[in-house]
Structures are given as structure tokens and as C-alpha cells.
């Protein structure tokens, strides 16, 4: 499978380049980033480029390399056009970048089907995070009072995290609507109670030292339950990325969430 990595110079891009190079079934054919020079190229690959095409021109790279899969770890502002271009060229998008709407996901699903290709958008590629979301979904049937605290490094652009949004969506499918907190509560400092999704609250912490962490906290009569996941480095996402590059070759349409590729 011929893979192009977009955002190759970034934190996730570099890790993905390493993971693709280390997998015998995947072939790294191209790396795309906004700005690239020789220093960046050797920093990304760790050695001579060995025929891997480096460019800031996504369309040209996808065409020239005859890519099967485009892995995107860029920015919320960039990723949308990248997905459009990949699908248009019949290249399967595997997207970790967060920050799209349900309508956009539905449109890309249709576009993938029209083109007869697969695609995947995964707000989180770490298996532990997928389990955390599933366990939280189950728990919410019995403990419907729930809030999320997600903690990330301070260079993260979007809030709340894509993982928190996906968790809220999964819980909303399972949980019976309930009034949380006091109906007359008042924020002395605006924003203190966090963001609101379907009656649930989400709080985003951004600090140096963190990678990616989330707590889903449930409250019941005389008890609380906390389900927590920690990615302590970006290797945690790589088995999911590699698996997705392979699986995406086998179906048509866009899958939203890695859990849909697991048994
Ligand atoms: N699904 C998952 O499991 C995970 C998802 N993520 C998500 O992945 C995304 C990337 O995260 P991260 O790697 O930390 O971010 P980084 O900022 O480290 O990397 C983003 C890279 O994309 C580049 N870029 C920006 N604009 C363009 C463009 N127009 N064309 C090509 N490249 C571009 C940036 O270049 P420059 O710096 O020069 O602007 C940078 O090298 C985020 O949305 C994050 O939330 C992160 C971790 C796990
Ligand atoms: O920006 C990050 O770092 C991460 N982004 C994803 C998200 O928004 O959920 C996945 C993971 O949490 C790391």
C-alpha cells in the first residue's frame, strides 16, 4: 500500500512516517508539509530520502506517487481541502486531524461511495482511548450524570478535543436525558462550567507537560466513577494508524471512529 503522509513535519506526522517505514506491508511514497527544506526532510526521515517524494504540493504528490492512501495530521483549517482533493483523485483518506462537523463527515462518506473508495476519520487512534469511550458509553446508561475533563499539550489548536466530542456523541446515543447541576447555577467567571453538549459539560485543560489525556467522570448517589485514559507519547496512536491504512483498502464509504474497524 502506497502511503503519502500530510503534515509529515509535525508531531504526529513524524511518528507516522516512522511507523509506515517500519511496516513491511506499507510503502512510504510521499511526505507533504507546508514548508520543507533539506533539514526538515532529514529530520522527518532520519536518513536520506530514498526515493520518498517530499513536497508542499499535495495534489502533485498524490498523482506523481500513485498513492493508495493519504494520512492527514495537519490542522483543522487545512485538513478539509486535503480530504476533498484525495477523494477526488481516488486516494483513500485516513484522517487523524480533528475539528470537522457531522455534515462534512456525511458529505465525505457520500463522496467516497461515489468514487468507490474507503476512508477513515478517527478522532483518536489509541486503542485505550477507544476502550475508554466505549466503557463511558456503557456506564452512562446507569450513571447519566457525567462531565468530561480533557487535558492536552498547550500547542493544541482545537477545543474541546476530537476525542471528547466523540465520547460525548457516543454517550448521547446511550444516556437518558437528565438535568445536570442546579437549574439556577450561575457562572461568576464566564466559562467556569465548561462547554455544553446535550446537557453534559466538557472542560479543556491546555498545559505544557501533557500529551493527550481524558477523564470521564460519572456521579451517582453517594458515589463517583472515573474512567481515565492517558497517551503518554505519540507512539500510542501508531498501531491504530497502521491498521487503518491497511483496512481502508477493504471497504467503500467513510468510517468515523476506529471502533468501527474493531471486532
Ligand atoms: N486522531 C488521533 O489519534 C490524533 C490526532 N491528532 C490531531 O492531529 C492534528 C495534528 O496534530 P500535531 O501533529 O500535534 O500538530 P503539528 O502542529 O505538530 O503538525 C501539523 C503539521 O501540519 C503542517 N501543516 C499546516 N498547514 C499545512 C498545509 N496547508 N499543508 C501541509 N501541511 C500543513 C504544519 O506545518 P507548520 O508547522 O509549518 O505550520 C505541521 O508540520 C491535530 O488536529 C490533532 O488534534 C493528534 C494526535 C492524535
Ligand atoms: O492534538 C492532539 O494532541 C490530540 N488530538 C486528538 C483529539 O483532539 O482528540 C487526539 C488526541 O487526543 C491527541
From TrEMBL:
Enzyme Commission (EC) number:
1.17.1.8
Residue ranges of domain Dihydrodipicolinate reductase C-terminal in the record: 128-262
- Grouped into one coarse class, the protein's main location is cytoplasm
GO process annotations (BP): diaminopimelate biosynthetic process; lysine biosynthetic process via diaminopimelate
| Keywords for this protein | Amino-acid biosynthesis, Cytoplasm, Diaminopimelate biosynthesis, Lysine biosynthesis, NAD, NADP, Oxidoreductase
Keyword Oxidoreductase in annotation: yes
Where along this sequence does the record place binding of NAD(+)? 7-12, 96-98, 122-125
SUPFAM superfamilies given for it?
Glyceraldehyde-3-phosphate dehydrogenase-like, C-terminal domain, NAD(P)-binding Rossmann-fold domains
Supply the Pfam families for this chain. Answer: DapB_C (PF05173), DapB_N (PF01113)
Name the GO cellular-component terms. cytosol
Question: What pathway annotation does it carry?
Answer: Amino-acid biosynthesis; L-lysine biosynthesis via DAP pathway; (S)-tetrahydrodipicolinate from L-aspartate: step 4/4
Q: What is this protein called?
A: 4-hydroxy-tetrahydrodipicolinate reductase
What is the native source organism of this protein? Tumebacillus flagellatus
Amino acid at each position: 500500500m502506497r502511503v503519502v503522509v500530510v503534515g509529515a513535519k509535525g508531531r504526529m506526522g513524524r511518528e507516522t512516517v516512522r511507523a509506515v517505514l517500519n511496516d513491511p506491508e506499507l510503502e512510504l511514497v510521499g511526505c507533504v508539509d507546508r514548508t520543507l527544506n533539506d533539514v526538515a526532510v532529514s529530520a522527518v526521515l532520519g536518513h536520506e530520502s530514498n526515493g520518498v517524494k517530499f513536497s508542499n504540493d499535495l495534489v502533485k504528490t498524490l498523482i506523481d506517487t500513485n498513492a493508495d492512501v493519504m494520512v492527514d495530521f495537519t490542522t483543522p483549517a487545512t485538513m478539509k481541502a486535503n480530504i476533498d482533493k484525495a477523494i477526488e483523485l481516488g486516494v483513500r483518506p485516513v484522517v487523524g486531524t480533528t475539528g470537522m462537523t457531522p455534515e462534512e463527515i456525511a458529505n465525505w462518506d457520500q463522496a467516497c461511495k461515489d468514487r468507490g473508495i474507503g476512508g477513515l476519520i478517527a478522532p483518536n487512534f489509541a486503542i485505550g482511548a477507544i476502550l475508554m469511550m466505549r466503557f463511558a458509553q456503557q456506564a452512562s446508561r446507569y450513571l447519566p450524570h457525567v462531565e468530561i475533563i480533557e487535558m492536552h499539550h498547550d500547542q493544541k489548536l482545537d477545543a474541546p478535543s476530537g476525542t471528547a466530542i466523540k465520547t460525548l456523541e457516543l454517550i448521547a446515543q446511550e444516556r437518558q436525558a437528565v438535568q445536570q447541576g442546579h437549574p439556577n447555577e450561575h457562572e461568576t467567571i464566564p466559562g467556569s462550567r465548561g462547554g455544553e453538549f446535550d446537557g453534559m459539560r466538557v472542560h479543556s485543560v491546555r498545559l505544557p507537560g501533557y500529551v493527550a489525556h481524558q477523564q470521564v467522570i460519572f456521579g451517582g448517589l453517594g458515589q463517583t466513577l472515573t474512567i481515565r485514559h492517558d497517551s503518554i507519547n505519540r507512539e500510542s496512536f501508531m498501531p491504530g494508524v497502521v491498521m487503518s491504512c491497511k483496512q481502508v483498502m477493504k471497504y467503500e464509504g467513510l468510517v468515523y471512529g476506529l471502533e468501527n474497524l474493531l471486532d
